[in-house]
Amino acid sequence: MNLAAYNDFCKNLGPTTYVQQWGGAHVWKIGGKVFAISGWSGSEVVEEPFVTFKCTELSFDILKEQEGMRPAPYLASRGLKWIQVQDHGSMGDETLQKYIKASYQMIAIKLTKKLKAELKL
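-> structure tokens emitted (121 positions)
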């Protein structure tokens, strides 16, 4: 998935916000909480950037062992279950979209009732 497709997919999930932060990473949030991050390898922008998302504990345990994926730097080191896809050959676009959508849903469900009502969730 290239950067434009990633941003387009995240934008269409529902009430989301977008910001570039952390050195130009494309960060998508719901209710101010991050659900997906896309960036690049080192200082070089690439056609298919790294994509990071939250996942279940079972998915984390499986995906972290797959070639081209790793526990997300900074997030996983704090005990959070976030995976970073570094090689898009290891996960097709459709599967990646399902994981991003699941990440969105996991974050959305933990929002306060007030915020859910404001976002019309």
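Strands lie at 17-21, 25-30, 33-39, 50-54, 69-71, 82-85.
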